[in-house]
Amino acid sequence: MAFVLDNGAYTIKAGFSNGPPQIIPNCIMKAKSERRRPFIGNQIEDCRDASGLFYMLPYQKGYLVNWDVQKTVWDYIFSKDCLSTSLNNCPTIITEPPFNFAPIQEAMVEIFFEEYECPSLLLVNASSLSQYHYKFLHPETKACLVVDSGYSFTHIVPYVNGVKVKEGIRRVDVGGKLLTNHLKEIISYRQLHVMDETYVINQVKEDSCFVSQDFFKDMERAKTKVESNPVVKDYVLPDYTSLRRGFLKDPEPQSEHQTLRLNNERFAIPEILFNPSDVGIRQMGIPEAIVDSIKACEEETWPHLLANIVLTGGNCKFSGFHERVYKDLRSLSPDEFKINVNFPENPESYAWEGGKLFAGDSSMKTFLSTREEYEEEGPGFCCDKFSGCM
């Protein structure tokens, strides 16, 4: 048994490998209604009024920079209020982003050995655990390409024979945070000032946005009058007395609740994942980045990579995301290659499930750094040992 901690920038997926994970927001929040009390992780469910929340985030631009916030969230996760667990009797697997900085790795190793008294530890990329999960389910595959679209970035990582192809890794600087912030700006400009309502607008994004299969056709539909417009919807905002979370409904002339009228922003927001230039980011969209990543690998691996693409991360949950990635890839790839885009049942916890499976693999022990090694050789030695994992 091992403890698996998928330490994402938006949520932490944590739990022992013999059970399911708990998904906990990786932040500290303060509310206008209860100024004295900070809400750590999923304590936000206790907040009476979640409007105007102020966030303190441990991650900025995909990397762990605020150690005080992160340590507070970790302390909460291991406390009796959450998982009520200790790490001092089993190995711990923690995820980190690709190309993580050495000082961040070493500080993480130090905290888990010194503060949480881990007997042994492994730092590994979330995409590597996703690849292990996919290979476990499809043992005959020789290569696999992981698309991890998360809070800060979208990473595309190819694996050949279980080994990461570093020159093929691509990063698109678009993630869930950028999409939520852009939606806040659009709604604030068109209807209602919501720049302080990150929590609520994130829910609006999750409940109402979808990926268009034909952007220009949907734009034409969105221009028609409300009666004949299949895109336009009203989003009923929560009032935190009778309604804790908003919902989508057909447009009505009058409503007793405060509503947002959503039209083309429903599909224009996720479109940024496919066309970052829409918001001035001069980069390829996800399908072009996948093709570019594959072209950086050896030519004989191309058909294997195209036939084994797996989508992970919270952004993959947008309705139509999977179909659009397949459609765009089909038009960008040679006809003779078969394309298979795998969409897991829960893309958010796919890497954690991979860690759970890896914990039962006898080879895991060879990559673990022990407390004795840390005390004798230092954190740098431990990080060098981790780099051999996948």
TrEMBL record:
Per the record, its GO cellular-component terms are: cytoskeleton; nucleus
- Provide this UniProt record's keywords sorted from A to Z: Cytoplasm, Cytoskeleton, Nucleus
Q: What is its main location?
A: cytoplasm
Please, which domain of life does this record's source organism belong to? Answer: Eukaryota
- Report the CDD domains cross-referenced here: ASKHA_NBD_Arp6
Q: What is this protein called?
A: Actin-related protein 6
Which SUPFAM superfamilies does the record cross-reference, listed alphabetically? Actin-like ATPase domain
- Provide the gene name from the record: Arp6
An example Pfam family from this entry, by short name, is Actin
